[in-house]
Specification:
With about 290 residues, this protein is α/β, with parallel strands linked by helices. About 35% of the residues lie in helices and about 15% in strands.
């Protein structure tokens, strides 16, 4: 694959309030480099309701719309319609929502917009929990993970919801996974989504140092381990049926990913083995979909 140069332009300014090592801050910076200044970003309630700074100041150099927790897809649909009425078909409309506002609270608005094939990019910043309000579990929280609502004595017992499969079943034009550990892949997928019309869905894995109980300097390393362990595979889905899977040459066991996060420090060897087998089953399912 041809090497991609990362754009020098910046649409995220100084002074934002993200935690040290926040994966979402790096993700946002790369996203805005790819989408450009002619972007209107819709923010359902999430960490990014706070990170830009206190009103009337903002670290963004693009127009943004703050929306209710449940209304990301609906608000973006309205923004797109308003721009079209004004004759502005060039501006990109994007939603930036957390996993709580995507997997859970906002899924009805997202599903409705995807069924209508509304013309916007929906970006799910997945830090695997409700981190802005104190690290509560969401349906994106991994099996056996600690959160404040799944304590060590009773961790989350259910697997993470497969949001990519849900979006693929809507038969939208494009869906993809990405992470900051692979910035060229990240930018390529964002730029590809920008060129496509209709509903596009980007699933970003964004490590959260406080919520994941990890040192802030390990954000990139943990993002890379998520891919190499196949906990978070990198792939694309076009029109709900065409899968393109990125094979990793350096595959590591799942325990290498789990052991550097305090939220998994209570796991037994048998629980780690269960997670490993689940990851292997998911990978085999993706292989079959990519080969069909």
């Amino acid at each position: 694959m041809k090497k991609m140069e990362i754009p020098l332009s910046e649409n995220l300014g100084h002074g934002h309030l993200a935690c040290a090592g926040c994966g979402a801050a790096v993700s946002m910076r790369l996203t805005l480099k790819a989408l450009g200044e002619k972007t209107v970003m819709v923010f359902p309630a999430s960490c990014w309701s706070i990170i830009p700074g206190f009103w009337p100041y903002s670290s963004f150099r693009i127009p943004v719309v703050h929306a209710g927790f449940v209304t990301g897809g609906a608000t973006a649909s309205g923004v797109r319609a308003a721009l079209d009425i004004r004759g502005d078909h060039e501006a990109v409309v994007a939603v930036w929502a957390g996993d709580g506002g995507t997997f859970d609270i906002g899924i009805q608005a997202l599903s409705g917009a995807a069924e209508r094939n509304e013309d916007f990019i929906y970006i799910c910043n997945d830090n695997e929990g409700y981190m802005n309000t104190g690290t509560q579990r969401s349906s994106a929280t991994p099996m056996y993970a600690w959160t404040t609502t799944t304590p060590v004595m009773k961790p989350k017992e259910n697997p993470k919801k497969d949001i990519m499969a849900i979006m693929a079943d809507h038969q939208i034009p494009y869906a993809a996974t990405a992470t900051i550990a692979y910035p060229e892949d990240f930018l390529r997928k964002m730029e590809k989504a920008k060129r496509i019309r209709g509903t596009r869905f980007i699933h970003l894995l964004s490590p959260c140092p406080p919520g994941w109980r990890m040192p802030s300097e390990l954000t990139i390393k943990i993002s890379r381990l998520a891919v190499r362990s196949r906990v978070f595979p990198l792939y694309e889905i076009e029109n709900g049926i065409s899968y393109t899977l990125q094979e990793e040459s350096h595959v590591v066991p799942v325990k290498d990913y789990l052991k550097v996060q305090g939220r998994f420090s209570h796991l037994t060897d048998s629980e780690i083995e269960v997670i490993q087998k689940n990851v292997e089953r998911t990978w085999e399912r993706l292989i079959k979909r990519a080969g069909s």
